[in-house]
Each structure stands twice: as structure tokens, then as C-alpha cells.
Amino acid sequence: MPPTFAQLGVPESICRALKRSGIHKPFEIQSAVIADAMDGRDICGRAPTGSGKTLAFGIPLIANVGQARPRRPRALILSPTRELADQIASELRSISGPVSVAAVYGGVGYANQRKQLQRGVDILVACPGRLEDLIDQRAVSLKEADQVVIDEADRMADMGFLPAVRRILDQTAAQRQTVMFSATLDSDVAKLTRDYQDRPITHEVGDATPDIRSADHRFWTVEKAERVDICANVISAAGPTIVFCRTRHGSDRLARQLTQRGVKAAAIHGGHAQNRRTRTLKEFIDGRVEALIATDVAARGIHVDCVACVIHFDPPEDHKAYLHRSGRTARAGQTGLVVSLVQTGQHADTKKIQQRLDLHEPITSPRPLEQSEAPARRRKPSHPRTQDQGKQKPRSQPQGDRNRPVQQNKSRGGRKPNGKPRSRPQQQTGRKPRSGASSR
Ligand code: ADP
Ligand code: MG
Fold first, then answer.
1. Selecting from 3.40.50.300, 3.40.630.30, 3.40.50.720, 2.60.120.10, what CATH number does the domain 12-204 have?
2. Are strands 215-221 and 336-342 parallel, antiparallel or unpaired?
3. What's the pLDDT tens digit per position in 329-374?
4. How far apart are CA 26 and CA 129, in angstroms?
5. What is the pLDDT of residues 69-94, one digit of tens each?
6. CB under 6 Å to ligand 1: residues?
């Protein structure tokens, strides 16, 4: 029997808030991490995408964080992307009660973020670049931040943020708790551990690489000219889809071409202003957009449980990119479909990627998706939380969904985001939040 949140030492008020959000039993990484983190230990955690890492580090922060003075947050969560920062902040806010949580990242104005910091933010979620800007402007100081989380440390490394992360860590309280999560714990991440953590406890859950086996992988030989039509067909059959393109320009063009074919598609990439990206992501989550056409960087932070399908429209750069992209589907124990459109000249590279990942699916001509093959879960909420919560271990759910008939019905209003707080009931703590920062 896995322990309950209460047995892990989670305070009653947080347990109640979790219940109100439909979260009843800890996932595996949460059972592993929460008690140690509540004790103030440094932690080095590795677990697959969708396994619940946000609450694994978030619950102990909310339980232990001190009250912040203006411009002096007490806890800091570093995130590689703005989308992820937003998702972490809203997931935590749904259970944070009187603890204030705010996110700061680039691509939007400074004024609001400065104002929030001035009011006092207990838990600050931040992307490294904007945080350093705000520090330079003296809008924030990290001197009193004695709980620090580095989320997705491997991606921080991939995106070249580690020098900034180090500069930032150097400014936090010397006596601090440092918790780090990453999909891999080698090389650069190991160096961060060596330099910034104190006798960390390592908790590893699941396979060392994201568990891509829970998705169904297809490799299709296609001519360049037929890719758009094939893509449109897959989206219509499979449901909510993220399509990966190599360039911003390419994603804009594909979004237009799909729209012309009657698919509700929207591009999402770093060339768009933050509010536009947030709006697009929300439209996708709400079901108003069927397909997000994304570049690799833009998609890094998109953690949405309802993605039924990932299409590699342009080939991924390497096996790591294939993993990151494909990990957008089949999250939190659900199934998913991953389709690679492989042009004739791309076979050799594709085979290399397959070998690295131990995927041995043949490269075939495109096959129309059988009704019984397309992931049929898109109309379900991402977690059937109101049902038997005991079945909700990630990755261990029966894969029976694949055999359910596909519903071609286009109205998918019931989809829920990963950062479910938008649709979660508001927490009623009876206490008044100290500052407006938690209700942006
Ligand atoms: P990760 O960071 O490991 O990729 P997330 O923290 O984003 O995963 O969690 C994935 C999804 O699982 C989110 O929608 C989250 O709300 C949900 N979730 C997390 N913990 C639980 C739980 N104990 N019970 C049910 N759902 C959970
Ligand atoms: Mg995460």
C-alpha cells in the first residue's frame, strides 16, 4: 500500500486542498521525495515526464516556506521555459492557501512582475534570464531564498542556462535546501549536484529515459509534397496533436496549410509574444485548437496531459529530441500515438535514432489510422481522479484505451490541462491570502 499524503507528513490543510483538486494518493515519485524534502534534505530526483514531479517538490515548499518580505522571496523554483513556469505556478497556487506564488519570465512587461515582487512573493517561479534582469534592476533579491528547486535541470543544460543557474544559486541563502529534478542525472547535472547540493538523497523512479514505450510509434515514408495532407488526416483521426517543425517559419506555414484543409491549427514558437503563446496553449487545452504546430524550444515547456498524438513533421535533430518531442504524448499513464514522416533521404538518420532508442518499428508507407488504433482518450479528463484513485500510478495503467472506438466528434470541450488549476475548484482556506500575488 502506498502511503497517504498525511502519512508522508503533509499538513492537513494541504491534504484537504489536494483532495479538492481531485488528488488523493501520492504518485511514486511523490511518495519517494515528499518526506525527505519536508525534512529539509537536499534531493536529486529523476522520474519520467508526467510522473508528478511538480507536486513532489511543490508540496514540501508550500508546507515549509517562510513568509516573504517585499522583494525577498523565501523559495525559488527555476524553470527552463515560460510555459513551464506558468504551469508550475498555477499548479501550486491551487493548493497554496495563504502562501503566495508568482512566476516571472521574459517576453512580457516588467511592471506587473516588479509590482508582485514588491508586494512580497513567498514562492517565486522564475526563468533564469528574466530573474537575472530583475535582480539587476534591484526588483528582487535572493538573499532570503533558503529553499531552491531546479526543475528540468537537463533542459536548462540543453538550453545553455547553466551559467545563469549557477550565478543565481550563488546569490541564494548559503544555508539552503536545494532540490533538483531532471530526466537524466549525468554530466552537467552531476556537476551542479557536486557544486550546489549538500549530501543529496537521490530518488530515481522509472527508466532512465522517458518511458516512450507507452506510446505507439509509427514511421512512415512520405514524399515532401504529401506531408501536409497526411498530417491533416492523422490529426483528424487521432485528436489533440502536437506537430513538430524545424523552424518558426515552417511552423507558421504548416499552420496555415492545415487551416486551409479545415484543421484548427495554430503555431507556437519563440517568435510570438508571450501572451499570444499563452492564449494559443489555452485554446489547445480547451479544444478550440486541434493541433499545435511547434518548434522544439517552444514545445519544451508544454506539459499537457491530453495530447493524443505527436507528429514529427520535420525529423528531430537526434534521439534526445525525438524523446523530448514524443514525451508530449502518453503522459501520466495514458497511451498516445507518435508518427514520424520520413522522407527518402532521411531514412538513414531515422534508423540511427531508432537504434539509440531501441525502437525497431519498420518504416512503412503511410497507413490510414484504423478506428481501433487511434488513441481514443481525448474526450476523457486527463486523470479520472474522481474514480478509483488507487489505479493512478503513472505508466502502469492498462492500455485498453487503444481498443475503444474513436469518436470523430469534434467538440472536445471537456479537455483538461496538465496545470489543471484553471478548472479546479478554488481553494477555500478560510484565511485571507496575504498578498494579491497568488491571484494573478
Ligand atoms: P512531471 O513534472 O513529472 O512531468 P507533472 O508534475 O506535470 O509531471 O504532473 C503530471 C500530471 O499529473 C499533472 O496534471 C498533475 O496535476 C497530475 N498529478 C500529479 N500528482 C498526482 C496525483 N498524486 N494524483 C493524481 N494526479 C496527479
Ligand atoms: Mg515537470
1. 3.40.50.300
2. parallel
3. 876 666 789 999 999 999 999 999 998 888 889 999 998 776 445 5
4. 33
5. 999 999 999 999 998 999 999 999 99
6. 23, 25-27, 30, 47, 49-55, 91, 303, 305, 332, 382-383, 385, 392, 418, 420
